[in-house]
Design a protein that fits this description.
about 110 residues; single chain; 3-stranded antiparallel sheet
Length: about 110
């Protein structure tokens, strides 16, 4: 087992990218059909990720927010995990939660 920290993960996430990941997972994208309640939930998520109704944060997730780890997970899943595992065949199994990454290894040398 080996682990590491994804440097500057929370401050580097584009808020629009995190909102788009929520939108796809909530099924509120065009043709998703989740209706008015889904759109209200997405609007609330965007307001929380941007830090308020008046502030317009473009980049960075607030590490103090309970929503930030989920937002980072959804964003990283689509933009790191899936492309990485499609492109690279690894002898070890990777995993990640928020900004913590790990690999299960067969031996210390791996």
């Amino acid at each position: 087992f080996a682990d590491d920290d994804v440097k500057n993960a929370f401050p580097s996430v584009p808020v629009a990218g995190a909102v788009a990941a929520f939108e796809r997972h909530l099924g509120t994208h065009e043709g998703g059909g989740k209706g008015e309640n889904g759109l209200k939930l997405l609007s609330l998520v965007e307001t929380l990720l941007r830090n308020s109704e008046s502030e317009n944060t473009e980049v960075g997730l607030d590490q103090g927010s309970p929503l930030s780890p989920l937002a980072l997970n959804l964003f990283m899943h689509e933009n790191f995990d899936l492309p990485f595992t499609r492109e690279v065949e690894l002898p070890v199994r990777p995993g990640r939660y928020a900004d913590n990454a790990w690999w299960t290894c067969r031996s210390v040398s791996e």
